[in-house]
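Suppose you are handed only these lines of text.
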Amino acid sequence: MKQELIQLFTEHFGYAPEVFSRAPGRLEILGNHTDYNQGFVLSAAVGQATQMVMAKRNGRICRIVNPPLDGEFTIDLDDLDNPKRGDWTNYLKGGLVELRRRKIEFPAFDLLFKSTVPLSAGMSSSAALEMAFCMALKKIAGIELPLPDWARVGQSVENVYLGLKTGLLDQFSSLYGKKDSLILCDFRSVEVLKNVPMPSGWKILVANTLVKHNLVESDYNLRRESCERAAAVIKQKYPEITALRDVDSAMLESCKEDLDIIDYRRAKHVVGEDERVWKADALLAEDNVEAFGKLLFESHESSRDFFENSCDELDALVELAHNIPGCAGARLSGGGFGGISIHLVKEEDAETYAARLAEAYRVKTGKTIETILCGIGDGAFSETL
Ligand code: GLA
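From them, the structure of the protein bound to alpha-D-galactopyranose can be written out as follows.
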């Protein structure tokens, strides 16, 4: 891919690019909606990635090419503050606005990129684009920021520039992913606590409902508000807590009467997810894949019943996963409200499983899914060419 990008850039702009960058999509394996509650997530960077080549140019106009889209897109460095709704260049403009807010300087540029991360599917195509862009800018402008701050730049693009109150999971996983490992992330200290090797002989199969969620339109921000309200109420009884991350199931139950019933259910999901992440870590250390898989099923039930971020299509896929041989567990992954489910499948059965799942789903719902067998790869990087 790198050579192809260099060639396309050179043909289009008439000179060679200076830097290459690559940032992968991510999968949330366990730990749903825990990141903005300062909690824990087991995640992974996937093999699918956004790759780009870039060079500095004079003036204030940046030129962008994104095959197979036709033509050239432009960004005017003197007109960054007016995002047009639904315009994907917002992910780049927003990054520039965030750097400028941090008083970091950068030149105009020419950029060409391609991505293999499926769009709007729950594999964080937007974070992959943001992080590939950040890593390319870092190299080209010699910007020195600690890695978590680059993740924060991407998060701010979504939070400030696009109005979506997401956590740090997507950008962080894209930066810190580790080949063949899950990463256990702590979103209070914003670090990887450990790499947890993926059990050998098992793979993650993504089943994409093709129901396009658009988190901006969804209830994502409402869920976050519910969690924050719940934490504030629990704090009245337990002053030492600052976020749901500090709450365990017993504490939550002891506050049930004080909580709004909806907020209680949302918090129950998040507290349960944090607990499941640690149970998963212990089970994977013993190579107990069957029990780990059951946690994925439990996580999905909790999403469906308490957090209410599932949908009929995702529920149908996870239901089918219980009855098709070769699968240890399945759940919705990412924000929810559509998007993808992940299925922990035996490597030798993966293709048969994917075909059976797609067929059973078609018979059950009359609808089509896309299945993707995911490799787990390393996080983002950039290099001078
Ligand atoms: C989306 C957000 C993340 C995270 C997940 C749910 O992917 O971008 O920050 O909150 O949903 O875990």
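What can we learn from it? The chain has eleven helices and twelve strands. The pocket of alpha-D-galactopyranose is lined by residues 28, 32-33, 35-36, 166-167, 169-170, 334-335 (CB under 6 Å).
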